[in-house]
Write a structure and sequence with these properties.
The protein is of the alpha/beta class. Helix 3 (105-118) runs parallel beside helix 5 (146-152). It is built from seven helices and seven strands, in the order αβββαβαβααββαα. A seven-stranded mixed sheet has the order 3-1-2-4-5-6-7.
């Protein structure tokens, strides 16, 4: 007799294996300086590796692999901080890949904490395929570094890339379901607040994400 495990259990086991395999390690594809596309001003952008969302039409599909590129180390953090030091650099942007993949969060938290300590006046932006609403419902015991990350970010651009909602006129994002969230104001007020760095939030369109089913094991 052949037994088939429920899908939820299979997904849980899959991510558990990934978490063990990559615990404490993160890889990245590239570090861009003088980036003007992923946030205001001139920025340093880190493209982390690893993503479970698999959005159709993803511009960086090779970075879905958690071992794509180079290993992220303390030397990488030192390099990023050095690149952020000039006065003409506005801040740091994290994208990928998925910076908030469970496997990446410990290293991302370490990076953000060190940048905040060394250069507190620099802004930090982060792109994620998760929605902010979903992240707020996750279990802190399963994602122990998430609150540290969110509490130190200035802006979170949330939501999967949706090819059918592609709009090349959008500022700092690719599809109309994505939001540019002012995290300090949002966390303080409890009301989702758009960043004043964009003025096109009226183009936003809600599209339900499959994240609750795909990542249900992360929920509280």
């Amino acid at each position: 007799m052949i037994f088939r495990l429920p899908r939820v259990i299979c997904v849980y086991l899959f991510f558990s294996i990934f978490s063990v395999a990559y615990h404490g390690k993160m890889y990245y594809g590239t570090i861009k300086t003088m980036d003007t596309a992923n946030g205001p001003g001139l920025r340093v952008s880190l493209f982390v590796s690893g993503c479970h969302h698999a959005c159709p039409g993803c511009f960086n599909a090779e970075a879905r692999n958690f071992r794509f590129g180079q290993e992220f180390t303390q030397a990488t953090i030192d390099e990023i901080i050095k690149k952020l030091e000039p006065d003409y650099i506005t801040g740091l942007t994290l994208l990928g890949g998925e910076p908030l993949a469970p496997e990446n969060q410990s290293q991302v938290a370490d990076l953000i904490t060190q940048v905040r300590k060394a250069l507190p006046h620099k802004s930090i932006w982060c792109y994620t395929g998760f929605t902010y609403d979903f992240l707020c419902k996750t279990d802190p015991q399963k994602l122990p570094f998430l609150d540290s990350i969110l509490s130190q970010l200035d802006v979170l651009i949330d939501g999967r890339f949706e090819q059918d909602l592609l709009d090349l006129k959008l500022k700092f994002r690719g599809s109309r379901n994505q939001r540019v969230i002012d995290l300090p104001k949002t966390r303080q007020s409890g009301v989702l607040t758009w960043s004043n760095e964009v003025d096109d939030q009226d183009l936003y369109l809600l599209k339900l994400s499959p994240e609750r089913e795909k990542f249900s094991h992360l929920l509280a």
